[in-house]
Amino acid sequence: MHELAITQSVVDSVCERAGGRPVRSVRVRVGVLTAVVPDSMRFCFGLVTEGTAAEGAQLEIDQPPGAGRCRTCAVEFTLTDLILLCPCGSADVEITSGQELQIVSMEVG
Prior knowledge:
By secondary structure, the protein is α+β, with helices and mostly antiparallel strands. Helix content is 26%, strand content 32%. A hairpin with a 5-residue loop joins strand 3 (66-70) and strand 4. The two termini are 31 Å apart. It comes from Streptomyces atratus. Involved in the maturation of [NiFe] hydrogenases. Required for nickel insertion into the metal center of the hydrogenase.
């Protein structure tokens, strides 16, 4: 379960930035192509925040869709998984969205 390690890193970063102030909410952007399961991340968030400045904080997860651009025909299209095939049949695809994994914002109180 890589969500635990990812969530731990998020909480560590948030708590460091909070400087001891209580954290009320954290918003992260986790693209659909990252293979991170949002429900698992929420579960892990509750565990790893215990005893930290982020204990009791709300976790909000934005999930941008996957998108790609074919290097062969230049068409842009939606990706729902990591099978990188353009509708034209080419596998020469550049991922342009959906692999994001970042802390967008946090609210401290």
